[in-house]
Amino acid sequence: MLCVRRFLPGLVLAGALPLAARAQDVPAPARPAARATAPAPARRPAAGPPANGRPPMATAAPSDEQSYHKEFVYGINFNTQGGLIGGVSIRSARVLDDRWLRFWSLEGVSLKNQKEERVSNTTTGGSYIYHKTNYAFALRPSFGVQRILFRKAADAGVQVNALLSAGPSIGILMPYYISYDYTAAKTLVFNSSDDIRDEQYDPSIHVQEGAIVDHAPFFSGIGRTQLVAGAHLRGALSFEYGRYRDAVAGIEAGFLVETYARRLLILSPGNQGDAALINNKFFPSVYLTLYIGHRS
User: Fold this and answer.
1) What are phi and psi of 11, to 5 degrees?
2) N or C, which end of the chain has less CB nearby within 10 Å?
3) What mean pLDDT is predicted for residues 19-47?
4) Residues in a beta bridge with 55
5) Distance in angstroms (rounded) separating the CA atoms of residues 75 and 193
6) Whole-prediction pTM
7) Exposed e or buried b for every residue in 84-104, given b needs 16+ CB within 10 A?
């Protein structure tokens, strides 16, 4: 009995060791895999003004076609019906889409009669236009469209546009005055005490050409100005050379046809013929305009 008690702890320990080793060999129960979850979609900001009150910044720079909405130019006109400088013009355009613009323009030009001839008085040194009785001017408000044919690069190149416009024409006839020496018309001698008058040139009255001292100041007959109604049609091409996107500079070349309700009396034949034979009411012309301006 004493021997059993002595060996009992050893027997228990010997039996427990195999059980512990077998317990280590048994795999632990597998834990359930974590459930995969898709990443939550990014929330879009709610529509409306931001909390700081400032407008949201654009995500991309605007294209060349959308970089301006208005255009304003002004220029100097040269035409086959005017003098050295035909006149001046202004034009304001608004963008409709990538290719089309709508515009209004205003142009003021001088009109010459092709038969005008300047003569000089060798005695007085003055000069005047033979048989001219009126200055003629045209005021042309126009409405039209502009088509971009070839667009230039952002900061260089040439842009080509086509323009078509029409509108009323206002013919302005301002009397052409001369200084006429009534005393010299009778005596053929000029003196400082002569009777010299500034009058509208009328060849049927001022028949003695040697008595015409000089042409009178430009605005001498402005109080007797007459207006004549008319209409015009214009077609043109313009070539823009603006280096910067907000600056405009270029040349416009085209044709214009214009007609009036009656003939513009620029030259008077006096008693020598019919005024209708030397004056016109239809004025076709080719023109060139040099212009500059800006966009916004």
Assistant:
1) -65, -45
2) N
3) 48
4) none
5) 47
6) 0.75
7) eebbebebebebeeeeebebe
